[in-house]
Amino acid sequence: MAQTEVHWDHQIPLPKLAPLHAKIIVALVALLCFINSYDGDFVFDDSEAIVNNKDLNPATPLNNIWRNDFWGSNLSSNNSHKSYRPLTVLTFRLNYLMAGGLHPVGFHVLNIGLHSLISALMIDMFSILLGGLAYDGNGNRISHAPKASLLAGLLFAAHPVHTESVAGIVGRADLLCALFFQLSFLTYCKAFRGGSERDEKFSIHWVAVSLLLCAAAMLCKEQGITVLGVNAAFDVLLICNVNVYELSQTLFLRRKAEDVSERVRTGLLTRLALLAMGGAFLLYARWRIMGTGPPAFTEVDNPASFAENVFLRIVNYNYYYSLNAWVLLCPWWLCFDWSMGCVPLIKSAFDWRTAWLLLLWCFLIGLISQALCSQDSQRRRTLTLGLVLLVVPFLPACNIFFRVGFVIAERVLYLSSAGYCLLLAYALGHCCGRWSRCKGLLRASLLALLCVYVARCALRSHQWRSEQSLFTSALSVCPLNAKVHYNVGKNLADRGNTSAAIKYYREAVRLHPKYVHAMNNLGNILKERNELVEAEELLAKAVLIQPDFAAAWMNLGIVQNSLMKFKEAEQSYWNAIQFRKKYPDCYYNLGRLYADLNRHLDALNAWRNATVLKPDHSLAWNNMVILLDNTGNLAQAEAIGREALKLLPNDHTIMFSLANVLGKLQKYKESEGFFLQALKINPNAASCHGNLAVLYHRWGKLELAKKHYELSLKLDPDAPGTRDNYNMLRRKLDQLYRTTPP
Predict the structure, then answer these.
(1) Which SMART domains does its entry note (predicted)?
(2) SS3 at position 405
(3) Which residues contact 610 (CB under 8 A, 6 or more apart)?
(4) Residue 118: which pLDDT band, with cuts at 50, 70 and 90?
(5) Other C-beta atoms within 10 Å of 197: how many?
(6) CA 477 to CA 326: how far, in whole Å?
(7) What is the pLDDT of residues 24-61, one digit of tens each?
(8) Higher pLDDT among residues 193 and 33, named by residue
(9) Is residue 655 within 8 Å of residue 686, measured between CB atoms?
(10) How far is residue 127's CA from residue 122's CA, in Å, rounded to a whole number?
(11) CB–CB of 51/89 below 8 Å?
(12) Average pLDDT of 586-613?
């Protein structure tokens, strides 16, 4: 077992702290970096994974989280993202249960706490990877690199690339995966607690526990399986002290079998076999759970994977790797989304950007050569393990084994950044050893680097507090990203600033002419502004590009209805229903079309379908009552109104419509009750006061009628008919006063 004093550790200008104190310091730094995100909103992907995910609701059966993906869709569905993370969803559900609803503070606080815990545990991981696994006489682990592991831990705790994972609630998947990743590694280390020089002696029970924790990491995020590769590398390099370069030379030169057996012992082969079988079983189980196969991604998600030839794909993939490396090295250039033109494709070998991937590989080849061929065994082990921790967790995101649904995703660098921090701490430690005379300058430089990291984390986590600041911050980083402009526009539209939203939607469509969602939203705004011709053109183009876009078909139908193109509108509505069978809003709008065409029975059937699909569809219920009232079917209107109120007992619009029906049926007392109940919920409804006044007028309660006419006119002086009715009532009251004896 390799375990030596790290000779350059004492040169690092940091205090030598006890392990517990070091963990507390690192955890506090992690807390300081991201504490200002604790009261942030649900932003970006949080809407789909949390706000709209029914699996979080305690009323939903708990076993649904084992059948659905991370976003709440059934795994067997072709539309499923296939991201199976039930343990992460379970923690969201617990947050929901403890807070009594969707309150983001609890979600954010847990994320920050998890990052602090992970950062503290990184001290143990770095200590083992840098200084080896050693124990004292009492069985306590000895750290041979306390300063280096503290430095690496501080760099990890404060690295700004972690902001998306910590400040974005869906980053919980990366945090939990990293936590179980660490526990799996540390548990694997416990298998050698005896500290024997003979690697054959190990505890198979701890290896089994490590495999179970690896499975838990996978149930938080798929990346968790990569801990098996890190465990295997740790075993080969630190437990068995195998020189990989010499071993490969032995194998390639076909030395005698006994030479190989000296380097690879039976215990190692047994453990590697256990890791391989465990990994194979987990991959097989994951594939079976996936159901219909891998998810289908589009060209806008990952354009390089759709490049016209293999050479261009390889070049662009390597360019993506260089951008990931740059984000780790200089984490100032951060963005919530890197798709849709943010990183234009390299289409020629002469593109100047190929220099970056050449630079990356020159650097990596230099590191690998040092990791394999250096005469310093400690350098070989440290560099190799650092590269393993950097590269292996990144493998699922590298497009080699399967296509991924993103260009760059800062969240997938959460674990890989640990390898980067280990290598950076090693490099800084050697600089301190070589330039020991400049210790003051080095100490100031380290402090400045950490302060820059902390400041950048604080700024970036503040940007993640709201969608407005998050989306706006991306405009300077990815001005060519159509999705950035789309999200800025959507956020502006949601806040009522439709004029500004139009500009960003138009830019999104200009950057990506086939961006159907931007066309749909822009068409909706133009529809509301009564710019119907352009709205129709945009929506027609959207459904031409994506014929199964049900929402665009429905919105096109609404515009065509407004343009009096009734036949085309009806066809558009039915197209929407064809592509989305359960579409209550479309049935509602279809009913409105039929009502405009005086096809009353068809309208009632359409609205009834809407309420069957969505029992709380208030507008559909209300329109049925109003239509039946207007056509003189008062008994049926009453029945529908009462049925609706059983499902929506606090809906004041249905109470108002039912009260009108009951008034016409001369059920004055019941009608009065519903009017008063509606006014209790919505006291400023001028129409409700006006119609209640009419009821009192008919009922002969003239003073009450006068009171509510006056309230109605006060709320809405231009209410149609109310002024005339009020004047008629006043004349009647004047006559009564004149004829009534004093």
Answers:
(1) TPR
(2) coil
(3) 584, 585, 587, 588, 591, 617, 620
(4) very high
(5) 9
(6) 14
(7) 999 999 999 999 999 999 999 898 999 999 999 888 89
(8) 33
(9) no
(10) 8
(11) no
(12) 96
pLDDT band at 733 (very low <50, low <70, confident <90, very high): confident
Region 515-522: what's the mean pLDDT? Answer: 95
The per-residue pLDDT for 293 is 63
User: From the DSSP assignment, how many helices (H) and strands (E) are in the chain?
Assistant: 33, 2
CB 397 within 8 A of CB 302: no
CA atoms of 117 and 27, how far apart (whole Å): 6
What Rg, from alpha-carbon coordinates, does the chain have?
34
| Residues 710/716/720/723 CA torsion (nearest 10 deg) | 30
Report the DSSP beta bridge partners of residue 142. 134
Cα angle at 507 between 502 and 510, to 5 degrees? 125
CA 84 to mean position of chain CA atoms = 14
Alpha-carbon distance of 290 to 287, in angstroms, equals 5
The per-residue pLDDT for 198 is 46
Rounded Cα distance, 712 and 685, in Å: 8
Encoded amino acid at 132, one letter: G
335 band by pLDDT with thresholds 50, 70 and 90:
very high
The owner of tokens 């392990």 is 19
54-75 residues labelled b (16+ CB within 10 A) or e (exposed): ebbeeeeeeebbeebbbbbbeb
Residue 278 contacts by C-beta under 8 Å, 6 or more apart in sequence? 211, 214, 228
CA 66 to chain centre: 19
**What is the rounded CA–CA span in Å between residue 394 and residue 741?**
96
Measure the CA–CA gap between 718 and 228, rounded to whole angstroms: 75
Helix runs in 396-515, H state only: 413-434, 439-463, 467-474, 482-494, 498-511
Indicate whether 197 pLDDT > 50: no
Where is 142: in which H helix or E strand?
A: strand 141-142
Reference 167, options 458, 452, 409, 394; nearest CA is 458
Q: What is the pLDDT of residue 199?
A: 52
Instruction: Give the count of alpha carbons within 13 A of 571, CB side only.
Output: 7
Let me know: does 232 contact 188? Beta carbons within 8 Å. no
- Rounded Cα distance, 51 and 101, in Å: 10
Please tell me the distance from the alpha carbon of residue 12 to that of residue 155, in angstroms, as a whole number.
14
Q: Rounded to whole angstroms, how far apart are CA atoms 131 and 136?
A: 14
Quote the CA–CA distance of 299 and 405 in Å, as a whole number. Answer: 9
Which of the listed ranges 182-191, 194-203, 442-451 does the model predict with the highest average pLDDT? 182-191
Q: Which two tokens stand for residue 446?
A: 């380290």
Q: For residue 544, with 0-12 CB atoms within 10 Å meaning exposed, 13-18 middle and 19 or more buried, which class applies?
A: exposed
Angle at which helix 413-434 crosses helix 146-157, to 10 degrees, equals 140
What is the model's pLDDT at position 200?
56
The 10s digit of each residue's pLDDT in 644-692 is 999 999 999 999 999 999 999 999 999 999 999 999 999 999 999 999 9
Query: In the 8-state DSSP scheme, what is residue 68?
Result: B
Instruction: For residue 247, give both structure tokens.
Output: 């071993």
What is residue 238's DSSP assignment? I
Structure tokens at 566: 């009734």
Q: Within its chain, how far is the Cα of 240 from the centroid?
A: 41
pLDDT reading at 177 higher than 90: yes
Residue in 610, 540, 525 with CA at minimum distance from that of residue 575:
540
Contact 338, 478 (CB under 8 A): yes
Which residue from 342, 304, 301, 331 is spatially nearest to 485, judged by alpha carbons? 342
Contact 201, 502 (CB under 8 A): no
pLDDT at 436 over 70: no
What does residue 338 show for φ and ψ, rounded to 5 degrees? Answer: -115, 15
Calculate the CA 583 to chain-centre distance. 25
SS (H, E, C) 176-194: HHHHHHHHHHHHHHHCCCC
Backbone dihedral region for residue 293 (phi beyond 0: left; psi -120 to 50: alpha; all else: beta): left
